[in-house]
Amino acid sequence: MEKISYIITENGQQRLCVNGEALPGLAYITYLTERNCYQDFADAGYRLFSFPVFFGHQALNECSQLQVFTEGIFDSSKPDFSRFDKDMELLLQACPDAYVFPRVNVSLPKRWEQAHPDELCYNGCVYHPDSKPRACFSSDIWAQEVKAELKVFIDHVQRMPYHGHIIGYQIAGGNTEEWFPYDMQGSVGQRSAERFAAYCQKTGISGTRGEYMAFLSEVVAGRLCEFAEHVKACTGHRYVVGCFYGYTFSCPNIDSNHHALRKVLECKDIDFLCSPISYDYARKPGIDHVYMLPIDSVKLHGKLYFSENDTRTHLSRPVNDMPWYNAPVWFGPETEEQTLDVLKMHLARVLLHGHAGWWFDMWGGWYRSPGYMAFMRKALELIREAARLPMGSTAQVAVFADEKSYCKANNDDLSRGICETLHTLGAAGVPYDLYLAEDYPLVSMAKYKAIVLLEPAVTEASETVARCGLPVLRINESNMGLTTAQLRQFYEGAGVHLYSREDLVVYANESYLFLHTTRDGQHLLHLPGDTALTDAFSGAPFSPEFEAKVGTSYLLRKETVAARC
Fold first, then answer.
1. Which strand (E) or helix (H) includes residue 547?
2. What is the 3-class SS of 383-452, one letter each residue?
3. Helix (H) or strand (E) segment spanning residue 10
4. How many domains does the chain have?
5. Which of 426-435, 500-509, 556-565 comes out lowest in average pLDDT?
6. Portion of the chain with pLDDT greater than 90, in percent
7. Is 392 a member of any domain?
8. How far is CA 239 from the centre of its chain?
9. How many whole angstroms separate alpha carbon 396 and alpha carbon 227?
10. Which of 327, 380, 400, 410 has its CA 20 to 30 A from that of 387?
11. Does residue 560 surpass a pLDDT of 80?
């Protein structure tokens, strides 16, 4: 049968195609569908949507004990699809031509876990005293039940009148739906111990904690591949399938289960990956909001990346009175103007790095203002326009990291310190591309003038990168606190173009330039060649000498001076 949806690479961009049409890669999702902004986004031209569906009514976040927002389909012995059907009806009333890829949370209901104590982790979440043991990802019995329930759900969807609006599935699960272990200690239980013992006997490894945690990451990645293959089989291989995974830089702790991205990238049944933009420093204005994963490796393997832009706004409010959800990270800037500058940064990530994204209106109503919706409409126009433009990266710096180095180092504090370098890289006034070290043989290196190697521990892959013949800055325990000035000094010695000699966030590709200021005052931009700039939102010419407050964003079109004249 003909494919309904698939991914293509075009003009330096990964794009989602549905029924032969390449869609602009922006979507809308909310957890609380009763507080949705479906009509607002449909009126702004959006056709791509998602919303959550839960197999079991359990804790969404074991660390906070926030429960999922609806009853689970499989909470009782007879499946209840009424909430999903109602949510589809609600969306299609607002947008009759919507395309939907539901976020399917496959976490099993309590009744299954109560009946299968040997298939659970030894402990509940280490961060909450009320957390109970949940499913262990090493359990084959658990995986078989997940696949059985997936088939029942997909069969129901395929029978319904709305099935023509479904264009793919996102497989979610684990803690916070992002395939973190429920125990937040690696998903350790009887079944993981048995599997690892057999693995040690087969391979002859000594069985250190680092080796155990690396093994458990492989288990989770293997499950994602297994579930994706199953969904493909259930749907005749006609729909895209994706998942959260590969939080290489934001979650370098070895018990995160996120250090086997390579396995997922090589899986033919996984079409897209997703993650939020990093939550570091509460996403305050005036810093770079960095990627959690090696975005350019994702693209290199032909996968589409969706950034989950759960961008807080001045309208964000607490979802409840839990202290967890009253921390600064859950609130946006104080004003709409400041929020729009952050939204521009998150849009620029999508636009200049050639991937997709969804606006995650988490608790509903975050974007319900004329100013935000005018931005959303313009964002979609810019994404459509970009489809006709050359959008390849013009970065002269490649950053590499070996995900295996974290478990080898077995030092979470060291790994986190080294990953902090991404914030230094982001503020140094120079754009960069971001790869897994194991992908080095696949990367076209001709355009790069310098390499930055994030190296908690030396590995075979990192040594291969270090021998590339270009200037290499190896970030390890001895220099992980380097400054932006030191970084620019290295770049200058390597012949890398500096867009700014002072701190400034810069993204660049063939057609666009993005700037985000890290300080108040005068700024001087150094442009390569005969380049002129116009503001992508206003159309006004942009001067390389400008004054701005900290946290101001500029999305700029590149033109040659001759074209301007």
1. strand 545-548
2. HHHHCCCCCCECCCEEEEECCHHHHHHCCHHHHHHHHCHHHHHHHECCCCEEEEHHHHHHCCCCCCCEEE
3. strand 5-10
4. 3
5. 556-565
6. 94
7. no
8. 20
9. 38
10. 400
11. no
What is the extent of the structural domain holding 525? Answer: 504-564
User: Is the same domain home to 490 and 516?
Assistant: no
Measured CA to CA, the distance from residue 496 to residue 234 in angstroms comes to 50
Residues 379 and 405 in one domain: no
Region for residue 223 given its phi and psi (left: phi exceeds 0; alpha: psi -120 to 50; beta: otherwise): alpha
Q: What is the DSSP letter of 525?
A: -
Q: Is the pTM of this model over 0.90?
A: yes
Burial of residue 534, with CB atoms counted within 10 A of its CB: 0-12 exposed, 13-18 middle, 19 or more buried: middle
Mean pLDDT, residues 196-217 = 98
Q: What is the dihedral of CA 181, 183, 187, 190, to 10 degrees?
A: -150
Do 527 and 504 form a contact (C-beta atoms < 8 A)? no
pLDDT at 282: 84
Bridge pairing between strands 272-276 and 304-309: parallel
| CA distances in angstroms from 56 to 34, 105, 359, 397, listed in the order given | 20, 8, 25, 45
Instruction: Indicate whether 391 belongs to any domain.
Output: no
Q: In what order do the strands lie in the sheet with 512-517?
A: 504-508, 512-517, 553-560, 531-535, 541-542
For residues 53 and 196, state if they share a domain: yes
Q: In this structure, what CATH number is given to the domain that contains residue 473?
A: 3.40.50
> Do residue 239 and residue 274 come from a single domain?
yes
Q: How, if at all, do strands 26-29 and 356-360 pair?
A: parallel
Any idea what the CATH number is for the domain that residue 523 is in? 2.60.40
Which residues neighbour 548 within 8 Å (Cβ) at sequence distance 6 or greater? Answer: 517, 520, 521, 523, 554
138: its two tokens: 């090493």
